[in-house]
Design brief:
heterodimer; A: 318 residues; alpha+beta; Sulfite Oxidase, Chain A, domain 2; seven-stranded mixed β-sheet; five-stranded mixed β-sheet; 12 strands; B: 215 residues; mainly alpha; 9 helices; 83% helix
């Protein structure tokens, strides 16, 4: 017997694609007009606290023009084990999660370190929309219109020293607020990391928004990482710590199964997961009888990132 | 009405309809009812049939222990139907994978069966279940004689392969496959205990007879 709680989002509240595109055109026109007068960031990042409040942002040349997945698809099918291991769990269990106040600790080998309130953390930077492909290690994919800050801007802001070789991120660890953490399915807090070269690449962003609005809790609010050429699990959610470290950190999924999930986790159709193939992917939202589509090397972002891995044995460094 | 009539004309139709409920649920979801199929309908269909296949294998395996424990022999009359429903759900799981997930791309299908151990063991379980379904008629049972029981004892192996197949494809949360594994272990343990006890009783009887004839 299936007795389901009705979704908290009424269908009428879901932004239709037409409205969304209209709004984007409107905002882009605004940016063009505004940037003629304003120097510096067109829109300093001001984060409204209200869920689904509209954000102001610029556009990016790195956005794909593939049609994005619907708001409903992106917000009801989530891997966020802090709120449960079923893909429908985060949407159900994260609704009452409070994202304010939110403090982010920056430490390690950097000239600027300390504890920052979320607003102070993002304020010096301009928000951008980045419509990215997202490829999950489970062989499905989406196209997601994120809004966020280029990670390179943040990293530069904290001025890492020469000793900083990696950037380590940690999620909130609070089993009271994140019910999934009462199970030991993963080692908490969730940890992810990038090399400093990866972190200063043009593509990664720290996302604060989705579809032009404040990021929903189930997608990692208030702050999550998006690294579009890597498998989705690199996109750590609910970030509370950013550390500049010298040695390669051990990351959550790598610790859970080192022979299955590597540190790099670059999307690579030629290197299969030990238990399943990575050659193809199912695009969420495609028709029931549509075949899977081939997965692209670096998830199609080779132009921006292939040079990061020259000379690296991708079979061993998966 | 005697028990046999009740089983044949009430019990069997009712159980048959109940066994169809999971199939009806997924059809309703495909039409957007009961919450729909979600963002990844193919995965939802495959998982649904796979889960119910495994559940029906365990339900069918529970028939004999239930009959022995309760002493109600009519329970055994549902065994074949439940076993055939296990085959039905497993076959639907396989067909969903073949048609929806793999889009009948035979090259990819053969590669997956031969190279992905969790798919290999799932496929092996399907082949064994198919053989059991094909020989499930009374006529086949009579024709095969002793070998029929040997073949159908394979259902324990099918249960183990099924749990293993499930266990091997989850990423980290093994709680659900663990529940199936524990149920299967309990059913197997009961059978083992029952056999052992039977052998001991037979030995005791043989002993007693020897003693009698000696006396």
């Amino acid at each position: 017997m299936l007795i389901q709680k009705p979704s908290d989002i009424r269908p009428s509240e879901i932004t239709s694609r037409d409205n969304y595109l209209n709004r984007r055109r409107f905002l882009e026109a605004g940016i063009a007009a505004g940037s003629a007068f304003v120097a510096g960031p067109a829109f300093p990042a001001l984060l409204p606290q209200r869920a689904r409040a509209a954000l102001e942002f610029g556009s990016s040349e790195y956005s794909t023009d593939e049609p994005p997945n619907s708001y409903e698809e992106i917000t009801t099918y989530n891997n966020y084990y802090e709120f449960g291991t079923d893909k429908a769990d985060p949407q159900r269990n994260a609704q009452d999660f409070e994202t304010r106040p939110w403090t982010i600790t920056v430490d390690g080998h950097a000239e600027v370190t300390g504890r920052f309130d979320l607003d102070d953390f993002v304020k010096p930077h301009a928000l951008q929309e980045r419509i990215y492909r997202m490829r999950c290690v489970e062989a499905w994919s989406m196209v997601i219109p994120w809004v966020g800050i280029p990670l390179v801007d943040l990293v530069r802001h904290f001025r890492p020293t020469a000793a900083a070789k990696y950037v380590l991120f940690e999620s909130l660890h609070d089993p009271e607020r994140m019910p999934g953490q009462s199970s030991r399915v993963l080692r908490w807090p969730y940890r992810e990391a990038l090399t400093i070269a990866e972190a200063t690449n043009v593509l990664p962003i720290l996302a604060v928004g989705l579809y032009g609005e404040v990021l929903p809790n189930q997608n990692g609010a208030p702050l999550r990482l998006v690294v579009p050429w890597k498998y989705g699990f690199k996109g750590i959610k609910g970030i509370v710590r950013m550390s500049f470290v010298e040695t390669q950190p051990r990351t959550t999924w790598e610790m859970a199964a080192p022979n299955e999930y590597g540190f790099y986790a670059n999307v690579n159709p030629g290197v299969n997961h030990p238990r399943w193939s990575q050659a193809m992917e199912r695009r969420i939202g495609s028709s029931l009888f549509a075949p899977k589509q081939p997965t692209l090397m670096w998830n199609g972002y080779g132009e921006q990132v292939a040079q990061l891995y020259e000379g690296l044995d991708l079979r061993r460094n998966f | 009405m005697d028990t046999l009539t009740k089983v044949l004309y009430v019990g069997k139709p009712v159980v048959f309809l109940l066994c169809l409920v999971p199939a009806a649920t997924i059809v309703a979801q495909a039409f957007g009812l009961a919450g729909g199929l979600g963002a990844n309908p193919i995965e939802a269909i495959q998982d649904h049939f796979g889960n119910w296949g495994l559940r029906f294998i365990l339900i069918a395996l529970a028939v004999t222990p239930l009959r022995l424990i309760s002493g109600r022999n009519w329970i055994g009359r549902f065994r074949r139907m439940l076993g055939l429903f296990a085959f039905f759900y497993v076959a639907m799981h396989f067909l969903a994978w073949l048609v929806l997930d793999q889009s009948m791309n035979w090259q990819a299908i053969i590669a997956d069966i031969s190279e992905r151990p969790f798919i290999t063991i799932g496929f092996a379980a399907l082949v064994m279940l198919s053989a059991m379904a094909a020989t499930s008629t009374t006529g086949m049972r009579r024709r095969l004689g002793r070998r029929w029981q040997q073949l159908h004892n394979g259902v324990y192996a099918v249960g183990a392969l099924g749990v293993w197949h499930y266990w091997w494809q989850v990423k980290a949360d093994i709680r659900e496959p663990l529940v199936y594994a524990l149920v299967l272990a309990a059913l197997l343990a009961y059978r083992a205990w029952y056999r052992l006890r039977g052998r001991k009783r037979a030995q005791a009887r043989a002993h007693a007879r020897a003693f009698d004839s000696a006396g």
